[in-house]
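Fig. S4 source data, part A: sequence.
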Amino acid sequence: MTNPLHRRAAPSAAAHDGTPRRSPWVTSVDTVFPHHANPLGTIFGGRVLELLDVNSAIACFRFARTQVVTASTEPVDFRNPVYVGEILEVRSRVIWTGRTSMIVRCEVTGENPYTGERRLCTTGHLNFVALDAEGVPTPVPPLLVETEEERALWDEGERVRAAIQRRRHPNG
């Protein structure tokens, strides 16, 4: 059986009509198993980064409807541990768009399955670039920013993007 995604070229984000799009949260839920953990019984940071990357890529793919690649991981803060046996929830959403790039806000929550106690464990941002069928960066739709929360997230995304630019072009 042939993969149906390979039957036709990936649609080009350039084909969008310029109408701003909303980016809802993409949520995935998992359980932390012993093979995901370090000797302290908490999830490996690298495993969390993998989950953030996949979840964020899905948020971008759904938003731009074209292939995307991770361009950079921006500050990711591990605030609280997630323990073996706990429920791990990953949320991601596009919060800022440029011409071909998207900044994604990511959050990881740990939950005790017996008490229901939840705590924010990890926050961070990832930077993605949209690609056309030939693998060339392609424009993304503008992000719809209407609510106070969306405006605050946009501003946060602008600060992340500015930090990326300063790092890539330190002399101006």
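Fig. S4 source data, part B ends here. The chain has a mean pLDDT of 93.
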